[in-house]
Structure of 4-diphosphocytidyl-2-C-methyl-D-erythritol kinase:
Amino acid sequence: MTLTLPAPAKLNRMLHITGQRADGYHELQTLFQFLEHGDSLSFTLRDDEAIRLSPAIDGVPEEANLIVRAARLLREAAHAQSKVASPTALPGVDITLEKVLPMGGGLGGGSSDAATTLLALDRLWGLELGEDALAELGLSLGADVPVFVRGFAAWAEGIGERLVPAPLDTPWFVVIHPGVEVATPAVFGHPQLTRSSLAISMARALQGGRNDCEVVVRTLYPAVADALDWLDQFGTARLTGTGACVFCAFDDARQASEVLGRLELERPMWHAFSARGCNISPLHAALASA
Ligand SMILES: C[C@@](CO)(OP(=O)(O)O)[C@H](O)COP(=O)(O)OP(=O)(O)OC[C@H]1O[C@@H](n2ccc(N)nc2=O)[C@H](O)[C@@H]1O
Ligand SMILES: Nc1ncnc2c1ncn2[C@@H]1O[C@H](COP(=O)(O)OP(=O)(O)O)[C@@H](O)[C@H]1O
């Protein structure tokens, strides 16, 4: 049996940096929302214990791939929680990845792939570890993984692990990838990064907010600044996460596709897509009917 599930993108509708912890990680306030657009993963159990991913992602060795890491971590956790006698007592799995989301794009593709892997294998292996345990495992893989495990649009605090549901509007978005890959540690390590925004309430954030990474990312990546300025003529353009993708909201699909048409003529070198925002992750919608 093969289980095929989506790994949707996320947007950070706003992102404020309110401090830095002793371990160097930054404290954030951010609004996460999912997009009806993303990667797709298929899982088929094997007769032996191997975990295999294909195709490989260029430049990401298998042992660093968040999909393989998530599968191995889940197997160890199942053993640690006495669900199985040994990690290799669970059948191996063939995982096929259809990669759509750009890497280092701020769309959370790697994190979303990891969350989809945790939920898919929890189901296929019959583990029922529970969402709290899966979110905690996810957090050890990356700060963005828990929101994809939980599957609801969220107001996030801490490093992104303290989540409460956020009643966001669900417009259509145009998302532009200006052709550069942003290194998240380079942004968070930058001396000029704002690290002391005042903490605000979710209600206030829902009325609009900035992305505190934007100033530094504009300086480090002129292509991102160019994309923000181009998109700003149609509304309020924002960076998602640490970039490189930028987005702008539209009332309907028609307006979004008109902007994509303009983009093709005026900036043919940029990749872009349009997709609707959603407050329940497409992963959870798919799991409910699988
Ligand atoms: C900023 C956000 C917002 O959604 O998005 P992205 O642009 O990466 O998608 C995330 O919190 C990113 O999460 P994620 O991409 O999982 O980051 P991690 O792998 O945990 O961390 C990469 C590196 O970024 C820095 N980092 C990350 C998160 C954070 N709150 N503070 C940090 O200082 C650390 O140097 C860390 O080593
Ligand atoms: N399955 C995966 N998909 C994408 N990136 C991955 C994956 N596994 C590991 N990575 C690594 O994680 C980095 C961040 O990827 P990604 O989550 O797509 O970007 P971002 O955090 O900016 O949204 C990549 O540059 C890559 O080195």
About this structure: Strands lie at 2-20, 26-45, 51-54, 93-98, 154-157, 162-165, 172-177, 238-239, 246-250, 271-278. The mean pLDDT is 96.
